[in-house]
Amino acid sequence: MTKFTVTIALLSLLALHPAGETAIAKPEDVGLSTERLVRVTEMMKRHVAASEISGGVTLVARHGRIAHLEAVGVMDADSKKPMTKDAVFRIASMTKPVTGLAIMMMMEEGKLRITDPVSKYIPQFKDMKVAVALPRQTPPPGAGDEPPAAPRFYTVPAEREITIRDLLTHTSGLVSGPMSNADARKPAVVRKPTETLADYIPRLGMTALEFQPGTRWAYSAQAGFDTLGRIVEIVSGQPFDRFLRQRVFDPLGMKDVSFYPTETLEPRMPTAYQIGPKGTMVKNQNSGGMQSRVYFMGSGGLITTAEEYAKFAQMLSDGGELNGKRLLSPRTVSFMSSVHAPDTLPGRTPGEGYGLSVRVVNHAVEGASRLSDGSFGWSGAYGTHFWVDPKEEIVAIMMIQTPVREMRPEFENAVMQAIIK
């Protein structure tokens, strides 16, 4: 290939990424191996061949430039429509770090402190109770395979109020286990389809906490971060979706991101699947359950592309700024991605603490992780996964729509082994 041809090829590639978009780099120019990055694609193809995923998109950036962006497989197993690099994925809980960012922005502006009790903003959260389990009853002879009875418990006063930090770190106990989930399913609490955050979130103050605040780590899949979304609404004076659009997405140039499918985004959404009883994919019949035009989940409602989410991740990697638009100070990004819930806390994984909306690798060797100490990120229920590695200046994103957990460490390994200098 002549120098002229190479130049034309590079100019054509750059033309696909206009000013303000993340720059493209040859892998070797950012210390990665082209040959070794192929292993990322090979890993994805193995899972497609095993009928565990229909397809997906992977992205790897280093030093602020994209060195790998590949689409593998199909959008839908029946239609066989090829997967595209601009496919729009349900990112589920990868929404949570976006909500965490919004809270950090409000903290920087002096509108809240993370040590504030939630009741300062939502009075119904004052004087909450904590569930204490009662002994399980032995089923009578001949009960057969009846569904297990709802957990039995009594309540005691919480020793302290839950705080914004507790919500950010999943140490609040708010709808975080079987007892608190049972309370949240009571008719007086359950959210109606037409309700907003303002309508629903105050009722969560009626529920019992799973444990005394701060005493353990247990994932609050929806309630904790939806409550944070409501707090952002209160202190900013804007609906949560509008705040994110005006204060986060527009400044970062994230156009293809939404809380619900639009006319331009829906045709690019891959089918979501689950792993069925025989170990292969079956269509997820509730794949639209997180999307809404009225209830904007701080916990999991966003849909977007790998490249769009990379802008968010790259902003964090760059200390809170992207393309001249600063959302946070470097000190606040460091604070957000520091360990606030240590890996010694009951419920955490060895080698992985938890920061303010992100997991944090604090001892890679102990956790058998391929990432550098200090790496942070999160995943989503449909299989999406991302992390930022500040030491290596790596941003990596995997977008799939089947929850295959073992693909997360496989993706991490495939990316990290491609670093050659």
Description:
27% of the residues lie in helices and 16% in strands. It folds into two domains: 17-94 and 244-416, Beta-lactamase, CATH 3.40.710.10; 112-134 and 150-236, Methane Monooxygenase Hydroxylase, Chain G, domain 1 (Up-down Bundle). Strands 1-3-2-17-16-15-14-13 form an eight-stranded mixed beta sheet, sandwiched between helices. It starts with a helix and ends in a 5-residue tail after the last helix. The protein is α+β, with helices and mostly antiparallel strands. β13 and β14 form a beta hairpin.
Task: Give the CATH topology of the largest domain.
Answer: Beta-lactamase
Summarize the helix and strand pattern as letters. HEHEEEHEEHHHHHEEEEHEEHEEEEEH
- Beta-strand portion reads 15-25%
Rounded to an integer in angstroms, the radius of gyration calculated over CA atoms is 22 Å
| CATH architectural designation of the largest domain | 3-Layer(aba) Sandwich
Taking strands numbered 1, 2, ... along the chain, how are they ordered across the largest sheet?
Answer: 1-3-2-17-16-15-14-13
Give the helix tally: 11
Main sheet characteristics = 8 strands, mixed
Helical fraction equals 25-40%
CATH superfamily heading of the largest domain: DD-peptidase/beta-lactamase superfamily
**Whole-number mean pLDDT:** 93
Please report the total strand number as a whole number. 17
- CATH class membership of the largest domain: Alpha Beta
**What number of structural domains do the residues give?**
2
What global shape is seen?
A: globular
Distance between the termini: 26 Å
Q: Which structural class should the secondary elements be placed in?
A: alpha+beta
The low-confidence runs, each spanning 5 or more residues with pLDDT under 50, are 1-19
